[in-house]
Write a structure and sequence with these properties.
By secondary structure, the chain is α/β, with parallel strands linked by helices. The protein contains 22 helices and 18 strands.
Length: about 550
């Protein structure tokens, strides 16, 4: 056994099943160690940034540690955007990089850079291992920190260290599963804390429940709590799908990718005097008005102490399993649901609009183009409890936030803080490999897709039945919308269907005359390869982001 074999055994022991990476000479000993076993799979991505985004998406979906790897020099530098994205969205990712041999470090050798220093500027923990006996404590610290704090960390490994033999009787390199680092699991809050928060909620005039990504799995309990409080439920974009969006208390998404056209959602927030937040990272859209000053009480519920808001004052805070918190609060409120006519009216207005869009038919669209809203209402019918969704960053994100209606607690994975274009395709790979018996479905724009188009080859190589929907309008719409004179935002696009087929994927195009139901049924059929759906969208059709002043009519 050598050091690389130990690292693979350690990762296997803490539950890692894939390493997303791109090879290079300094990490060849590690790749050889993976080849010698069958429990961890090496996933050959086409770019290091995509490897980081695939691992990040997998970690967000599962809450478990995910791993990506790159070589020295440009390989580690290419990691940066994906790792920053993971860190900002609190994904527990371990990024491993190779380094040139220790005797070649620090004196201008080929591809030698100080990777630990470089990545320490963007990550909370970034270390270098230049001696075999450093490895065990550094690896344990890195994994424990990433897991416990739900953050992204980096460990650089010299190639000579990776290939160093380890004696069979060396106790330092023994692995005892009883003493491996594990994330802290808190107990539910004490009964007195539940009583205090329930009393606080009873004294509020109007409470709004806000749901974020960390509340995954808590949808039914939060819906019951909302009924007893008479409270509307609004989600952040990464919390979309956690609560059944056909439930009458749900009011959609709010935030930069929220519902700019639904004034009732904004009015509900404005009338509220308290926000009850479950697992929400970005509280600003819910607590503040246009002047960015906190205007509402915050009662924050979090699974761990390190995600408690530092920016805003909390009236009360409950820390522990979010399911238990929602159940505990609901039990202390009246059994009889509280009726709130304004919530009911807002929900009915939304449902009427969705019904109108669903029946708008082909006549209301240009024959060369499909209307995004119409397509998304069609897509809704194919999404079930085994669907996993990824949204890229762009105009399509706003359309999806508004017109996807998720009823089965499907996870929605997004680049929430950084808004990274090109996130969807690598993320689909990470999700599909984590849950092979589910179906990963992504929506991307034509600009974001072309940033990572090579990853179609990865999905084909690993026989992943992902579905990627590309909104093709030939323009970077969200940027163009802000320009007085459109410049530098029009795209020269290839034939996406032909391109996907050249990679070995299945593909089809949708325009204003396509039988969408038939094509979606084809895409969702059992298969062993990706399916790309190119949706031709009118380049003059725009939907505004919620915080922008300039509004472009939707037609």
């Amino acid at each position: 056994m050598n050091v690389s074999d130990y690292i693979v055994d350690f990762l296997k022991a803490v539950g890692v099943r894939q390493v997303f990476g791109y090879p290079g000479t300094p990490i060849l000993p590690f790749m050889a160690a993976i080849e010698r076993q069958s429990d961890i799979e090496w996933v050959l991505m086409r770019h290091e940034n995509s490897a980081a985004m695939a691992a990040s998406a997998q970690a967000r979906l599962t809450g478990e540690l995910a791993v990506c790897m790159a070589t020295s020099g440009p390989g580690s530098a290419n990691f940066i955007c994906g790792l920053v994205d993971a860190q900002l969205d609190r994904a527990p990712v371990l990024a491993l990089t190779g380094m040139v041999p220790t005797f070649n470090q620090g004196h201008s050798e080929f591809q030698d850079i100080n990777q630990a220093q470089l990545l320490s500027t963007v990550l909370p923990m970034s270390s270098s291992c230049v001696h075999p006996r450093q490895l065990v404590p550094l690896l344990r610290n890195s994994v424990g920190y990433a897991w416990q704090n739900q953050q992204t960390v980096h460990l650089a490994l010299s190639s000579d260290v990776l290939s160093t033999p380890v004696a069979d009787n060396d106790s330092l390199f023994s692995i005892d599963s009883d003493y491996l680092p594990r994330p802290l699991r808190l107990m539910p809050p004490p009964q007195e804390a539940f009583d205090m928060v329930a009393d606080e909620l009873r004294q509020c005039h109007q409470v709004v429940i806000v749901v974020g990504r960390r509340a995954v799995g808590c949808g039914p309990a939060i819906m019951q709590l909302a009924e007893r409080l008479g409270a509307p439920i609004i989600t952040s974009l990464d919390g979309k799908g956690i609560v059944d969006e056909t439930h009458p208390h749900t009011q959609g998404v709010l935030g930069i990718f929220g519902l700019p056209g639904v004034e009732s959602t904004k009015q509900i927030i404005k009338r509220a005097d308290a926000v009850l937040a479950f697992g929400v990272d970005t509280l600003k859209p819910f607590l503040t008005d246009a002047d960015n000053t906190q205007r509402r009480k915050l009662i924050q519920c979090e699974a761990d102490f390190n995600t408690i808001s530092l920016e805003y004052r909390r009236t009360r805070t409950l820390v522990g399993p979010l399911q238990a918190i929602a159940d505990g609060l609901a039990r202390r409120l009246p059994d009889k649901p509280t009726t709130n006519l304004s919530i009911t009216e807002a929900f009915e207005t939304k449902q009427d609009h969705l019904q109108e869009v669903a029946y708008m038919g082909f006549d209301s669209t240009h024959p060369d183009y499909v209307h995004p809203a119409y397509f998304l209402t069609k897509l809704n019918r194919f999404l079930d409890e085994k669907s996993m969704l990824v949204l890229d960053t762009g105009a399509h994100t706003v359309w999806a936030a508004r017109y996807l209606q998720l009823a089965h607690q499907q996870p929605v994975i997004v680049s929430s803080h950084l808004g990274t274009m090109g996130f969807s395709l690598p993320a689909l790979i990470g999700l599909q490999m984590a849950r092979p018996h589910h179906r990963a479905i992504g929506i991307s724009g034509d600009g974001g897709f072309q940033m990572v188009v090579g990853e179609l080859a990865t999905a084909v190589q690993y026989k992943l039945p992902i579905i990627l929907i590309v909104f093709n309008n030939g323009v970077l719409q969200n940027v163009k919308t802000q320009q007085d004179v459109p410049f530098g935002t029009y795209l020269h696009n290839p034939d996406f269907v032909a391109l996907a087929k050249a990679f070995g994927a299945d593909a089809a195009m949708i325009d204003g005359q396509t039988d969408i139901d038939s094509l979606l049924a084809q895409a969702f059929a059992e298969r062993d390869r990706p399916f790309l759906l190119e949706c031709r969208i009118d380049p003059e059709l725009a939907i505004p982001l919620s915080r922008w002043e300039r509004l472009v009519a939707v037609h």
